[in-house]
Amino acid sequence: MKTYSIALIPGDGIGKDVTEAAWQVLQAAAKRSGLGLEGTRFPWSCAYYRETGAMMPPDGVETLRKFDAIYLGAVGWPAEVPDSVSLHGLLLPIRKAFAQYADIRPHRLLPGVQGPLRSEGFDILCIRENTEGEYSGAGGRIHSGTANEVAVETAIFTRAGVERIIRFGFEQARARRKKLASVTKSNAQKYSMVFWDEVTREVAREYPDVEVSHYHIDAMAARMVMAPESLDVIVASNLFGDILTDLGAAVQGGLGFAPSANINPDRSAPSMFEPVHGSAPDIAHLGIANPIAAIWSGAMMFEHLGEAQAARDVMRAIEATTARGIGTIAGKDKTETITRAVLAALN
Ligand code: NAD
Ligand code: IPM
Ligand code: MN
């Protein structure tokens, strides 16, 4: 039997609820396809930080390297550990160390889900640069406590980094409806975004079959609300992609529906699968977190592992569940009810 070893990092808050729920579905789907799915749980989280003084052990990244994939819930418990500590101690270093430079975030309505704006008709694939740009962590701050205090956060864009994400976007567009929208703010940002536009035009020459459009991030935010059906593949920098994908999640019905795959396209290290949403402290412990985003992220994991049938089975079970109106209205159904319905639809 083909067996995959998966590193499970449930993390904090609802990350724990949705991971446990989704893991049951993924195991059932694996069984159906005659696959083994061996999960190793890592308790790395804000609670772990409070016990040990670190979000993960010093050799944490090396420990993860030997797995076929990483499956993560959410990280962050800002009431106890500052986000700048928890995210820079766990999630962000994994994305960077494993060159998971392409963050794939699909936005479409599942059957039976009523988005706040639309009931049908869009299918967007947002490709977010995931290792550099505004998240480079370069900068500094002078703590003078005076009116002259200055903080600098430097966004670093490299040719290699920009080129590879744009090319990845074009490949995705080529396999879909052949439309690519590049998102920048090159009217206000003189260096990095002008550079991004130039690289996009260069790479575009290799893809004459793909129609390219350039949008400013502000105009794109409006377009995603007003005319999401006009969009196919969107490519955006780390921060812009982060913001647009919460917007995309909202348009598709809420954060409980938006999955994500942090992909290392070269397969030189494991990729990581997680919902777009965070630990949702406001609903943690209530048992009402929607596990669909996490389950869908699991389908993306199967797809990446080359297990297309298991991926299709999971998606079919999610769609059968939402089509029955289960899990479609925030807070109406318990995490457990939604999970049981997906499991029943799978079998
Ligand atoms: P959030 O995504 O956790 O929550 C935003 C809103 O969406 C909340 O009202 C929440 O209840 C709701 N929501 C989120 N997921 C839901 C689900 N599955 N079902 C139903 N409702 C859901 O964003 P936030 O409040 O800004 O962040 C909370 C913490 O999570 C912070 O520490 C933040 O840094 C962290 N965070 C982590 C990740 C990650 O690990 N990938 C992603 C985003 C935020
Ligand atoms: C996401 C999250 C993270 C990000 C945070 C928690 C650092 O918002 O995965 O979308 O900005 O990448
Ligand atoms: Mn985000």
From TrEMBL:
User: Which coenzyme or cofactor does it need?
Assistant: K(+); Mg(2+); Mn(2+)
Q: Which residues form a coiled coil?
A: none
So what EC number does this one have?
A: 1.1.1.83, 1.1.1.93, 4.1.1.73
Q: Does the keyword Metal-binding apply?
A: yes
Q: Which UniProt keywords apply?
A: Manganese, Metal-binding, NAD, Oxidoreductase
Which pathway, per its entry?
Answer: Carbohydrate acid metabolism; tartrate degradation; D-glycerate from L-tartrate: step 1/1; Carbohydrate acid metabolism; tartrate degradation; 2-hydroxy-3-oxosuccinate from meso-tartrate: step 1/1; Carbohydrate acid metabolism; tartrate degradation; 2-hydroxy-3-oxosuccinate from L-tartrate: step 1/1
The Isopropylmalate dehydrogenase-like domain is annotated at 5-342
Q: Which family does it belong to?
A: Belongs to the isocitrate and isopropylmalate dehydrogenases family.
The job of this chain, per UniProt, is described as: Has multiple catalytic activities. Apart from catalyzing the oxidation of (+)-tartrate to oxaloglycolate, also converts meso-tartrate to D-glycerate and catalyzes the oxidative decarboxylation of D-malate to pyruvate.
Its recorded name reads: D-malate dehydrogenase [decarboxylating]
Tell me the organism: Phyllobacterium phragmitis
Q: What is the lineage of its organism?
A: Bacteria, Pseudomonadati, Pseudomonadota, Alphaproteobacteria, Hyphomicrobiales
